């Protein structure tokens, strides 16, 4: 018996639950991507990636550092993302498929600062946007003002087309970065490594030794490069 699930109905369900964007990737597009554990993707064929937009009003208040309001919205959106992916996971399980919701924000490798998978890379593969010079996902509608989560499944789903990189010569994120961590490198698809795009250790040091130690922040969070991106910015 061949089990079938409608890609369109799955996307509509995600939107009804509160997602702003939904994309589907064939996992062959991300073959070789680092995961934890290393064999995480072996039982699955597709990824359903959802995005929820964070209010642009939150980022208008961010100048050179994160704000307590951003911390609250960041956490609240992550909770909503996890709620949606868990419910979509259960829908797929009830239809007889494998399904695994990957948390929106969970660092499992604190040496390399990685989660189970890169939601940004998965979202790019699912056609939600492209990876900007900051390595954040940039969407045409919301820019990088989104949070992401992923469901892995063995359901045969219709994949979405990938989007071209549209950052061009813009370097606003590079100039605004309080850690001077963004190198401003351009690429057609994606960099060969995180280090090609970022002085990553500078970013980690700024987050962990400065912002996270502020009582009103208490999180490894920034948001400055997001606030200056022209894509999705209110005109």
Structure description:
With 235 residues, this protein is of the alpha+beta class. Helix content is 31%, strand content 13%. It is built from eight helices and six strands. The strands form two sheets. A four-stranded antiparallel sheet has the order 1-2-6-3, sandwiched between helices. It has a two-stranded antiparallel ribbon with strand order 4-5. The longest helix has 27 residues, at 68-94. The mean pLDDT is 94.
Helical amount: 25-40%
Give the C-alpha Rg. Answer: 17 Å
C-alpha termini separation: 52 Å
Structural classification: alpha+beta
Stretches with pLDDT under 50, minimum 5 residues: none
Strand content: 5-15%
Mean pLDDT score, rounded? 94
Please render the helix and strand layout as text:
Elements: H1 7-17, E1 21-26, E2 46-53, H2 56-60, H3 68-94, E3 99-102, H4 119-125, E4 130-131, E5 137-138, E6 146-153, H5 172-176, H6 194-197, H7 200-209, H8 224-228
Antiparallel strand pairs: 1-2, 2-6, 3-6, 4-5
Which properties best describe this structure?
235 residues, alpha+beta, two-stranded antiparallel ribbon, globular
Report a brief summary of the structure.
The chain has helices spanning 7-17, 56-60, 68-94, 119-125, 172-176, 194-197, 200-209, 224-228; strands at residues 21-26, 46-53, 99-102, 130-131, 137-138, 146-153. With 235 residues, it is an alpha+beta fold.
């Amino acid at each position: 018996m061949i089990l079938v699930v409608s890609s369109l109905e799955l996307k509509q369900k995600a939107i009804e639950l509160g997602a702003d964007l939904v994309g589907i990737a064939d996992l062959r597009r991300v073959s070789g991507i680092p995961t934890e554990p290393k064999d995480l993707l072996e039982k699955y064929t597709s990824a359903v990636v959802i995005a929820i937009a964070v209010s642009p009003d939150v980022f208008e208040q961010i100048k050179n550092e994160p704000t307590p309001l951003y911390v609250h919205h960041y956490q609240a959106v992550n909770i909503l993302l996890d709620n949606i992916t868990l419910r979509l996971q259960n829908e797929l399980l009830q239809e007889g498929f494998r399904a695994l919701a990957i948390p929106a924000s969970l660092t499992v490798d604190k040496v390399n600062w990685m989660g189970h998978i890169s939601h940004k890379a998965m979202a790019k593969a699912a056609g939600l946007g492209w990876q900007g010079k900051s390595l954040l996902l940039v969407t045409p509608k919301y820019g990088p003002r989104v949070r992401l989560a992923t469901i892995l499944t063995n359901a045969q789903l219709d994949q979405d087309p990938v989007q071209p990189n549209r950052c061009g010569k813009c370097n606003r994120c590079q100039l605004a970065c309080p850690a001077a961590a963004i190198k401003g490198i351009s690429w057609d698809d994606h960099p060969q490594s995180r280090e090609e795009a970022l002085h990553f250790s500078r970013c980690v040091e700024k987050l962990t030794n400065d912002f996270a130690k502020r009582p009103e922040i208490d999180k490894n969070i920034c948001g400055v490069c997001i606030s200056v991106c022209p894509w999705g910015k209110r005109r």
